[in-house]
Fold these 3 entries.
Entry 1:
Amino acid sequence: MSTQVWLGILFLALIVIWIVELYWVARMAEEWGRDALTLVSGAAIFFVFAAPLTMIAPGLVERVGDIWDAVVRPLGTRARRRRQSTPRLVMPGRTVFLEQERIRIGRYPNNDIVIDHPTVSAYHAELVRRPDGRYELHDRESRNGTRINGTPVRQAIVKDGDQITLGAITVHYLEGSKTLEALNRGGVPIKRR
């Protein structure tokens, strides 16, 4: 094969690697609670070094992303506003955006949100979106119970900033960006029901 063919194959392989890295950066941004559009925009310019630079120098990647965000602000603002207003559960190691009508939570792998911990029941709880858009938490006859802000519940409407405890695992229910910022600064104060 000629040198041109080898260079073409190499170039295609690098593009595939780049696309996979950008997808990974977007997924990690959601888990880290950061704006995926800004992080991917900042990482894209670094081509095949997108993922390593995001891990090594996330601040640099975010600054570059902010520049791109300023250039394409109308698209970035709409996407960020939509993501910040989407309810989510923040738990150790990940953030899950709640975009379904019904979300099953438990230890078994066929739940929508799997929490693999011995104190979490197989089918522990369920979040159901009400017609008014709020989510209601239902305990599914769990062995170790479900609590919101320390109070045992069988069924209750969750509010922004609530701490939901399933067995021994606590997750935060967030709706707005201010609550997420407070959580990133060290926590959200517990509100008693």
Entry 2:
Amino acid sequence: MAPRKTIKPNPKAKSRPCEPCKGTGEVSRPVRVGRKQRVAGQQTGICLGCLGSGEIPAAD
């Protein structure tokens, strides 16, 4: 039987922070209210680019 090969991590594949959320995993959106659609405040939500992890997913 052949010896098992050990898998070494790839040093080139470093995770980068997500651009829209800058690595936090949350993005803020303005909340508009009323007939004239005035901005009333900010609301935070999960980043759809990284799904809250804060890192860009690896391209497989």
Entry 3:
Amino acid sequence: MNLFMKKIILAFGFCLSVYFASAQSGYNITINLKNCKDTIAFLTYYQFDKTLIKDTCTSIKNGRIVFKGKKQLDKGIYSLVSQQKSIYFDFFIDDQTQTLELQNDLDANNIEGLSAVNSPHENVFIDYLKFINKQNTDFQLYRNTSVIKTKKDSLLLNDKQRELEQRIQEYEQNFLTKNKSTFIADVLNLKMEKVLKDIPKASNGRPDSLLVYKYYKKHYWDNVDFQDDGTMRNPFFYPKLKKYFESVIIANPDSVNVEVDRILDKTKQSSLLYKIMLSHLIYTYETSNRMGFDKVFVHIADRYFKTGKAVGIYDDETVVERIIKRANLLRPLLIGSAAPDLSMIKAEDFETVKKMGFEAAKTSEEVTKIYYSNADALNKMFSHLYSVSADFIVLVFWDVDCGHCQKEIPKLIDLYNELKKDKKDVKVYSVYTLHEGDKYLKYIAEKGLNDWINVYDGAHLNNVINKYDVFSTPVIYVLDKNKIIKAKRIGVEQIKDVIKEMELEYKLK
């Protein structure tokens, strides 16, 4: 072959590669729906915990809907959404289905007529959707026509539901086997539960529930590709992740920290999946109502945000700084930490401190000047948290005029009297968060709180709002005799149980 012919062949090959590359660029989704009266339709996709709009068709003619774009669609599960914002059906998009033609020969809302004209593999998924739809429709019909009057009727309904679940499981397992190494099989894998089938008996003769749990946890994430952003573009990944952290793993902050790292380590740090999961996890544990789980928030902030592994997660990069600042504030207040000391003024010394001029001061410089001018007298008045000696210390921050405090403080008074009656070595370090001493003294006198250690920040020295994260009142902490935080941000009704647990700990030491 001469040099001229070689050049022609190479040039021809180059043209073909350019042609195929251009043919594969962009997307073209054509959908023909019989009896569709919509004038607008939406192409949406699942992404983690959200459903997002990808495209809109505003020129529907005779039920023909076209979505077209110059950039390829991300791999994931997409939905055709009607003008009324209801989903007609789901379908998947991967590299091979960027050009896709779907049709429904029956009715827009009847999935039985749905098919893919140019993708046999899409039809495999559509057949799965039809199967699930039929199983659910049949069961709903059975339930709606059944008359539940006796226990036997309820058992029959339960048996019918188990039969349904068994049929679906068998179908899905078959689906996975036949469609290995495909995107849609990966999606279905997220939906399916991995359970131990042959359960041995434990030493007590009953099914070994511990082994069942260990197997379930160990295989929970089998064959889930955390390296692929497409893993989160379906309706199954987010609920699965949520269930894992809420129900599957042990509800202990240290255990959660291990699992957070284990999951994030499976991803690429530059990936969208990593960024979305990290954002979700930091928010989840910053706002968690579970006592002590702010430890997870601090762990995530320290390991990922302070080390530069959270770059690009937020459009506003100052969010990262705020998270780090919040973690720094909470770190000294974690369960098991030594409580920060407080140097407060006793309520009975209100008039004396008032005459020093603290309340009239308008700047921090004036406050500082007044403090040093009266340092000797103030040092004699200070009531330090660390000078309190008791097995159980209830530290409460509250305000006389706070509506919730007016309900909780009387409950705390009753509980305190009950604990003292039971010979518990308990003391209440009561911190008034404002500076209206007359109101405070009046309340103390009226409610008989003279047995409490009643204090306030008369010298403006402590900044309790930041030191103890008091953004609302009342806030209750329970400390042990060494001033270790054992509980925090709890209701009065929980204090008794906390003290019982502490008593058990004291006995074991």
